[in-house]
Amino acid sequence: MDLPGLRARLKGGLAGKAALGAASLAYGAAVRTRRLLYDWNVLGSSKLGCRVVCFGNLTAGGTGKTPAVALAAQTLRQRKYGVVILSRGYGRKAGKKEVVVLRDGHVPPWTECGDEPWMLHQALQGLDVPILVAPDRVAAGLQALSFFQPDVILLDDGFGHLRLKRDLDVLMVHAARPFGDRRLLPYGDLREPLSALSRAKLIVLTHADQVKPSELDLLKDELQERSPGAAVVESCHRPDYLLDASADRRLEPGSLRGQKAVSLSGIAEPEQFESLLASLGVELVQRWRFPDHHPFTLEEVRSIANARKGLPVVTTMKDLVRLPEGWKEALGPGLHGLAVKLEITKGKATWAKLLTEGLVSAHE
User: Fold this and answer.
1) Which of 21, 226, 266, 314 is geometrically suited to a Cys-Cys bond with 294, CB 3.0 to 4.6 A?
2) Residue pLDDT, tens place only, 60-88
3) Which CATH number fits the domain 51-237+343-359, given the four candidates 3.40.50.150, 3.40.1010.20, 3.40.50.300, 3.50.30.30?
4) Is 217 helix (H, G, I), strand (E, B) or coil?
C-alpha cells in the first residue's frame, strides 16, 4: 500500500485532515503511555551481557540507518572487536518468528530475513559479522551471546525498541528534512515526540552535504538544546561500487559514466538514489519508482524489459534482492546494483570513541 500517497490524498480535504489529526493524537497518547510504562518498570527491559549500541531515527524511513550500522560494524571489526547485528527483518515472510542467521557462507533467501539484513550482509562480507533476524530481539540477543560471544551487539532500527536496554543510543537525523513537518504519524512522519531526542547520546546528521552551513548550524543548536550533552557528527552518503548482477561481479562506481540508463527503485527516497547516479555521470532517461520495500513481480520486470530499449538498468542493493525468480530471463543482461556507504565527514574520532567506550583495550 502506498501510505504516503494515501496520506497526501487525505490531506486534500478537511475531513481527511481531521481524521489524520485525530489518529495522530491517539498514536501520540499510545507512544507516551508506553514510554511511561517502561519508565515506571511496569513493562520490563532486559539487559544483555555485552555492550549494546542502538541505531534508529525519529522519522519514518529515509535517514540512512542501514549504511550507518554497516559502518559501525566495520569500525569495530577494524579494532578487532566481535560484533553481532540484530534486526527485526522488515518485509520478510509474515508471521515468521524464529531467529534467522546470516553469516559468511550462509545466506538464506531474502524472504526469510528481509531486504535490509541481506543488504547489510552484502556490505560486510568477509568481516565475520553474524546478523540475527527476529521480531523478538531480546531472544535474538540471548542467542547471539550464546553462540557468538560478541563484544558489541548492534541493534538496527531499535530507537523505540524499549524491551532491550542499550549502552548507547545513536540517532540518525536527515539534515535536509530532520523532523518532517514535526507532526506525529500518521499526519506527519514522526514516530515519537521530539522530546525523545533526549535519549540520544550520539546524533549522526546524514546528507549533511545537502544543506547550507548556516542551516546546519541552526539544526545543531536545536539538537543540543533538545538533547544536552549528546555528541553530533556529520555524514554523507557516497557510492561504493556497482554490482553487475548478471555476472555477479563488482565494478567501479563510475563504470557507467557518460551512458544513458534506466533507474529502478522501491525505497523511501528515490530522489536520493537518482541524484547519486547523476553524480556518477549517468543520464537517466527512465525512472521506475515503487513504494518502499516493494516486492517486485515478474510482470513488472517484463514491463521494464520492454520499455528499457536495451539500456542498462540500475537499482539499489536493497531492491536487487527483491527481484523475483526468473528476472534474469525476463530482463536479460545489463542490470546493476549500486552499493552506497556512509562516510563520517566531521567527528570521526568522536564516532569511534563512543562506539568503543568501555570495551576492553586488549582487543586493540
Assistant:
1) 266
2) 877 888 999 999 999 999 999 999 999 98
3) 3.40.50.300
4) helix
β-bridge mates for residue 287, sequence order:
263
The pLDDT of 259-264, averaged and rounded, is 97
Residue 158 CA to residue 175 CA, distance in Å, equals: 20
Amino acid identity for residue 180 in this structure: G
Q: Residue 3 has which C-alpha cell? A: 501510505
Domain ranges of the chain: 3-39, 51-237+343-359, 238-341
Please name the residues in contact with 346: beta carbons below 8 A apart, sequence gap of 6 or more: 208, 233, 234
The HSE-up count of residue 173 (CA atoms within 13 Å, CB side) is 28
pLDDT of residue 168: 97
Comparing 51-237+343-359 with 238-341, is the CATH topology the same? yes
3-state secondary structure of 192: coil
Q: pLDDT tens across 111-154, in order?
A: 888 888 988 998 999 999 999 999 999 999 999 999 999 999 99
**What whole-number distance in Å separates Cα of residue 134 and Cα of residue 96?**
8
Q: Answer whether 129's CB lies under 8 Å from 108's CB.
A: no
What is d(CA 257, CA 359) in angstroms, rounded to the nearest whole number?
A: 44
245: amino acid identity, one letter: A
CA distance 282 to 188: 34
Cβ-contact 108, 99 below 8 angstroms? no
CA 322, CA 121: separation in Å to the nearest integer?
Answer: 15
238-341 carries CATH number 3.40.50: yes
The vertex-276 CA angle with 155 and 187, nearest 5°, equals 60
Q: Which three cell numbers stand for residue 92?
A: 520478510
Q: What 3 state SS string does 48-102 have?
A: CCCEEEEEEECECCCCCHHHHHHHHHHHHHHCCCCEEEEECCCCCCCCCCCCEEE
- Separation between Cα atoms, residue 84 and residue 151, nearest integer Å: 8
364 pLDDT higher than 50: no
Q: Give kind and range of the element (H or E) at residue 92.
A: none
Please give the model's pTM, rounded to 2 decimal places. 0.92
Pairing of strands 100-102, 131-133: antiparallel
